[in-house]
Every structure is written in C-alpha cells, then in structure tokens.
Amino acid sequence: MEHLLERHLFLFIQLSIHFYLYMIALHNIEKFYKAGMQRTWILRDISLKINEGDFVTIMGPSGAGKSTLLNILGLLEQPNNGEYLFMDQATHKLNERQRTKIHQNHIGFVFQAYHLIDELTVYENIETPLLYKKIKGGERKSMVAEMLDRFNIVAKKDLFPHQLSGGQQQLVGVARAIIGKPNLLLADEPTGNLHSKQGEEIMDLFKSLNEEGMTIVQVTHSEKNAQYGNRVIELEDGWMKEIR
Ligand SMILES: Nc1ncnc2c1ncn2[C@@H]1O[C@H](COP(=O)(O)OP(=O)(O)O)[C@@H](O)[C@H]1O
Ligand SMILES: [Mg+2]
Q: Which-ligand-closest: CA of 233?
C-alpha cells in the first residue's frame, strides 16, 4: 500500500514537471489589419496542435500568412482573436514581458530577413541567446566556437552583418537560433539564400536536432525540404489545411 502510494506520488511529480498536453495548441486564431473601415484578413480561424517532437512544414503562396503565423507561434506578434497555449501556458493571457521571457527561454527563431543585430559581430550575434539564458562565460565561449566551426564561419567571427553575403547572414541566423538548444525551433525559409549543398546541410542538421527531441516548424517553398518533416500544413489567403 505504502509502496503504491509512493509510486503514485512519484508519477504525479514526474508528470507535473515534464508533462504537457501539446507543445503548441492554437484555438481559432485570427489576425487582421484595419485600414479605415475595412479589415484585411491575414489569418482566419486557425486551430492547430503540435506535439513535442513534431517537425511541421508550412507551405503556401507568397502573402498567404506564413510568416505571420510563425511570428505568432514565436510570440513575436499577437493575434487579434483566439487562444494560444504554449507548453500549457495561456500566452494570450500574459503580458509582453512574460511572453518575451518564454521566447527567450524556449524558442529559437530563424527570420526570413535574418534580423541580425547590425552593431554586433558575427560572434556576438550568435552569443546573444546564451546571454539571455545566463550561461557562464567559459561555457558560452566554447558553445559559440562550436557553432562557428560547424557552420564554417570561424574566419568571419569578427565581421559585422553588412560585411557578409546573404547566405552567410542566413547561416549566422541559423546558428543563433539553435545555439541555446530551444524546445521549439521556428524557421522562416531558412535555406532560401543558401547554395543547394549548404541548404541540404542545414536540413540534415534540423533533422538530427529533431531526432534529439527539438520540435521544429519551418516555412519553405521546397518540396524537398518538406520531406524532412512529418507533417505539412498549407496556408492560402489565411486559411489553413493540413495536407499530410
Ligand atoms: N503590418 C501590416 N499591415 C498590413 N498588412 C500586413 C502587415 N504585415 C503583413 N501584412 C500582409 O499580410 C499578408 C501575409 O503576410 P505574410 O505573413 O508575410 O505572408 P507570407 O509569409 O506567406 O508571404 C500579406 O498580404 C501582407 O501584405
Ligand atoms: Mg514570409
């Protein structure tokens, strides 16, 4: 009896620490912009559940709302209506500071337009997520060194973003997104400016991160990149459907 109780208590503690129903649960998300009396709809009635360990691809024509959806998932943008639960936290009820904290602690984001910080070097850009996570100096150094090495950009470490090609900036953006080992990686056309071989390397890297348990949502136009994931969602004019 005592043993059973202990076991239940142990299970309960385990569950309450590690268990959440979904990594992401969106309920009836809507996004629109107001122009005068008119509403321009960007996202319409999006409901979506993503499990931990999923590797989801979002596809669809330009202007369909893909980046907007990814920004909402990354807590960088707020929907006008609907609910967003991230690891069981009702993010629509949090304030901006709390949402930023969640972003910094759990989310890595590869921006379509890189969004590197102009005043920081390649090294410093890659290091920033580790500062938010309060990782100590020595460990930071070795983690950044490993990234520079892995992405073949050691020689670029003291350069500023404007001194890099688009492809190189994209690599720095990917390195910055994954260095903190986020629970969720959001990547907006992450290989759009890379040579096909580099693109393949990034996709192989994502695949291995996913196999280690990282949940990934990518936006891509490439059917080949979509093959790396386990689900495909299509957006068109703000409407979503899961196609496989
Ligand atoms: N601040 C804004 N004000 C008005 N419309 C916007 C704004 N931001 C984005 N949009 C519009 O939302 C639509 C979806 O944009 P986006 O999510 O970037 O699409 P995608 O990434 O699929 O190309 C586009 O038509 C875009 O013009
Ligand atoms: Mg986009």
A: 1
SS3 207: helix
Which residue has tokens 């669809």? 60
DSSP state of 154: G
Structure tokens at 51: 């499990």
Please compute the mean of the pLDDT values over residues 30-40 and round it to a whole number.
94
CA angle 71/73/79 to nearest 5° reads 70
Per the structure block, which two tokens stand in for 60?
A: 């669809």
Which residue blocks in the chain are alpha helix, DSSP H? 2-18, 66-73, 96-106, 122-132, 137-150, 166-178, 196-211, 223-226
Where do the domains of the chain lie, and which CATH numbers do they carry? 22-242 (3.40.50.300)
SS3 at position 184: strand
Q: How far is the CA of 211 from the centre of ligand 2 (A)?
A: 26
Q: What is the pTM of this model?
A: 0.91
Q: How far is CA 209 from CA 88, 141, 166, in A?
A: 23, 21, 24
Residue 3 has pLDDT above 60, yes or no: yes
Atom of ligand 1 nearest to the CA of 68: 17
pLDDT tens string 149-168: 999 999 999 999 999 999 99
Separation CA 229–CA 47 (nearest Å) = 20
Does residue 99 contact residue 131 with C-beta atoms inside 8 Å? no
The binding-site residues of ligand 1, defined as CB within 6 angstroms of any ligand atom, are 33, 40, 42, 60, 62-68
